[in-house]
Write a structure and sequence with these properties.
310 residues; alpha/beta; TIM Barrel
């Protein structure tokens, strides 16, 4: 029997040497194009799998969701439930999830940063930089957990942590204080419940509180172009999520790029013209067409960005 660590090493060794050194540069016209690894959610999601996808797509920058990194570092695995059990939160399921949460917290507070350093080297050696780490600093978390998240992000080489925009001012204030202490930006992400003033409170609380603007969701939220907002707040934006959405769809309306109402091309060209330096990360959210695949659609999105910035 192999231990989890031995399995991880074996998987790393199984990666072709060419894959590990096949560095690509996905900065087009001075604009850093990357992807949030949520885009690969329908695919295998080990650290090695995600790296292979990035290299295949030629991506040199990512927003890393926490699961591949924590799993690589030895975190306990979440409980698995049979498909026949459905999604109902039964007492048994609730008890199992609480037990997992307690075990994960205990692991986090004793975790060594050595595996995260190894993770960073694996990616950097392949030409992929972890610019952003997504692991929310939740209101219910202890101070020690906040310290863990900030320390992991910096160990991975990220200069920003992303999370959902808090609904309570005391939450964003507390997060901002930790961001200031660690000198790491917190990019607050939006869905369709926002308007142009939704970040005002958080931005006033700390210079490290910032905007992770989902341009697709924002376009749908205001039923208009995000470009005026981008121009006004460019000094407080730390990243984009790129997706195409249609007006008036109340949270739906994900569309293949170029078929929605989000001015993606114009947004990218604005970044090039104004030399905005934050990453613009592809988030694949529309339904993959029959006969296609996640990676095929991601390649289409990368090509869209490349053509827009030519």
């Amino acid at each position: 029997m192999m231990t989890r660590r031995e399995l991880g090493k074996a998987a790393m060794a199984a990666l072709p040497a060419a894959t590990l050194r096949a560095a690509a540069n996905s900065k087009f016209g001075g604009v850093q194009i990357g992807a949030i690894t949520y885009s690969f959610r329908a695919l295998p999601s080990t650290a090695q799998d995600v790296l292979k996808f990035c290299v295949e797509l030629g991506l040199s920058s990512i927003e890393l969701m926490s699961d591949p990194a924590e799993s690589f570092a030895g975190a306990p695995a979440p409980p698995k439930f049979p498909a026949s059990a459905g999604r109902e939160m039964t007492p048994e399921r609730r008890e199992a999830m609480q037990k997992f949460a307690d075990e994960r917290k205990k692991w986090r507070l004793s975790a060594s940063m050595g595996k995260y350093k190894e993770f960073r080297k694996l990616y950097n050696d392949a030409g992929v930089k972890i610019d952003i780490f997504k692991l929310p600093l939740e209101a219910s978390m202890s101070d020690d957990e906040y310290e863990y998240i900030c320390t992991v992000a910096k160990t991975l080489g990220a200069n920003c942590i992303t999370m959902e925009l808090p609904t309570k001012a005391e939450h964003s204030k507390r997060v901002g204080e930790y961001a200031t202490k660690h000198k790491i930006f917190i990019g607050y992400h939006n869905h369709t419940h926002v308007d142009a003033h939704s970040w005002d409170v958080a931005l006033s609380q700390s210079k490290y509180n910032s905007i992770n603007l989902d341009v697709g969701h924002f376009t749908e939220a205001i039923n208009g172009s995000p470009i005026p907002f981008i121009k006004e707040h460019h000094d407080r934006i730390t990243s984009f999520h790129l997706k195409d959405k249609k007006f008036g769809t109340k949270g739906g309306g994900n569309a293949p790029w170029g078929q929605g109402d989000t001015p993606l091309k114009e947004v990218l060209q604005l970044m090039k013209k104004e030399k905005y330096e934050w990453p613009a990360n592809i988030e694949l959210e529309y339904e993959v067409p029959a006969g296609s695949s996640v990676l095929a659609e991601m390649k289409t999105c990368v090509k869209f960005c490349q053509d827009a910035l030519a």
